[in-house]
Amino acid sequence: MTGLEIILVVVFVVAALLGYKLIGAVPSLLHTPLMSGMNALSGITILGMIAVTAFSNSALARLVGMIGIIAATINVVAGFGVTDRMLHMFKGGAAVEEKEK
Amino acid sequence: MNTPSPFMTVFSYALPLLLSLGVLYGIRLMSHVKTAARGNRISALCMLLAIIYVFVRTDLAGSLVYIILGLAAGTLLSVWMTIKVKMIQMPQMVGMLNGLGGLASALAAILTLFSGQIQSPFSLLTSALALAVGAVTFSGSMVAAGKLQGLLPQKPKVYPGHKAVTMLILIAMVVCIAALPAAFGDRAWLTVLISVLGLLFGYFFAIRVGGADMPITISLLNSTSGVAAGIAGMALGDILLVSVGGIVGASGLLLTQIMCRSMNRSLGAVLFGKAAAPAPAKPEPVPPAAEESAAEPTPAQEPQKADPAEWLQEAGSVIIIPGYGMALSQAQEQVKTLSDRLEAKGARVRFAIHPVAGRMPGHMNVLLAEVDVPYDKLYEMDDINPDFAQTDLAIVIGANDVVNPAANTAEGTPIYGMPVLDAEKAKRLIICNFDTKPGYAGVPNPLYNGAPNIHLMLGDAKESLEKLLSNL
């Protein structure tokens, strides 16, 4: 394995451990938005999708790339969008009373 | 960019690192409800910066039009979906988004394998793995989303020899993945084979999962969609892809573990059979031991000596236990009104949320937040269970297994050992459920046996609540 390949594997493991630790601190109250937010993050594969589409030479490969980009974009944008929508629904007691006045 | 300047080299490592830290900081903010929305936006901003950086870094050449079109179409569809989706549909929405992420990773791997640009065994192996995991995530998520949306039958579907076939597919997939870097066989054919096997495996895995195990499946597929992105990042040598993929993979796994623990199921049992088979076990006799014969709800049964209106008036402390039945009958508004009226007459009202209530982790909290129930009234199981004994009245709305005391006593049943809300410890208990049939786990609930301090209201939760409200 080359230096870069070793770095990549190490980064994967370290990121997973850090993520595991941070996510353990999220209360179950927020598990649904947490999940949709994580889901949006998994759309990070859009970076790879753009890169491989850029390298593609044939029209077919570019078309496949475009489909992948659409899928990844929906994953990212809709994922963050619904998470934002949900998180803004959570209100504390004072905020609720304010709204109902 | 033949010889990148030293600055660019440092930058190309520093930026992914910074953006990864930004994402982690965003997740950290999600551990408090007040900062969570900001955390989500910080993560989104990091992602946007990453996409801009790819545009700057990469020579997009003749593919620019395709890339722009893809981004534009995806964004438009997303905006529409974000506005349209209802909160009760969130589980299938997340399921579908998981699937799209898996699809993108699989397609990235396919293009990488067909481009002929990669040769090292490491890139070949990681591409093959990303393709397999991505394909499994895609088909598994689509089946799960279809089941949750009601497009596919909700019941577990088990084909003859299901387990053996699933294992065979898995083994064949591993062999193909190993053959790719070993340059054994034709690369194009192996790529096609891995895709097909991955899709099949995802289908067979998800089709035999029933309603109660859905939260676990969704969490697990969330994890695999992250893993697929991470491995695709390894194949492409993209550090940011790798780190974020790792974070998502870990988060999904953690949620899966939490779900399994809350349901007392092992991950293996969910994945490879031993479905929550209806248990023939008899309920623990609760005095008076009136044997329930999967009771048809006869109205004659309902008017007992108990007067729920009086119970509501007398109660100084109330705990409401919502379940998926509340969501199905769209009774959240009525629940909120009930809680408001009880508070107006001086009662202390709290909500007890079981970790697996609903169809995905935390689903019940979102549904109640939508109708403006303050989050500080939503309590987790462990925090509120000790308080039931000092509570005047508990009201169960469309929840069954999560309050079934048989979980503590009925050995050998699927729910034995599953932590439940101790609703029966409250001084009085009103249950608004559709019928008295056992829940998803198939274990009869002894709360339905007609104890004098339990009042049963059968039928649609919304109507039952309206009836209760008319007395307040």
Question: What does this protein structure show overall?
Answer:
Chain A is built from 5 helices and no strands. Chain A has a domain of 70 residues. The longest helix of chain A has 29 residues. Chain A is mainly alpha-helical. The model of chain A has no long low-confidence stretch (mean pLDDT 89). With 472 residues, chain B is an alpha/beta fold. Chain B folds into 3 domains: 58 residues; 182 residues, no CATH class; 170 residues, TPP-binding domain (Rossmann fold). In chain B, 56% of the residues lie in helices and 7% in strands. Chain B has a 6-stranded parallel β-sheet. Chains A and B meet through helix 1, helix 2, helix 3, helix 4 and helix 5 of A and helix 1, helix 2, helix 3, helix 4 and helix 8 of B.
Describe the SSE topology.
The complex is a heterodimer of chains A (101) and B (472).
Chain A (H helix, E strand, L loop, with lengths): L2 H21 L7 H12 L2 H11 L3 H29 L5 H8 L1
Chain B lengths: L5 H24 L6 H22 L6 H21 L5 H26 L5 H29 L12 H18 L7 H21 L6 H23 L2 H25 L3 H5 L36 H7 L2 E6 L1 H5 L3 H13 L3 E6 L9 H8 L7 E3 H4 L8 E5 L8 H4 L18 E6 L20 E5 L2 H10 L2
Parallel strand pairs in B: 1-2, 1-4, 2-3, 4-5, 5-6
Helix pairs in contact in B: 1-2, 1-9, 4-5, 4-7, 4-8, 5-6, 5-7, 5-8, 6-7, 8-9, 13-17
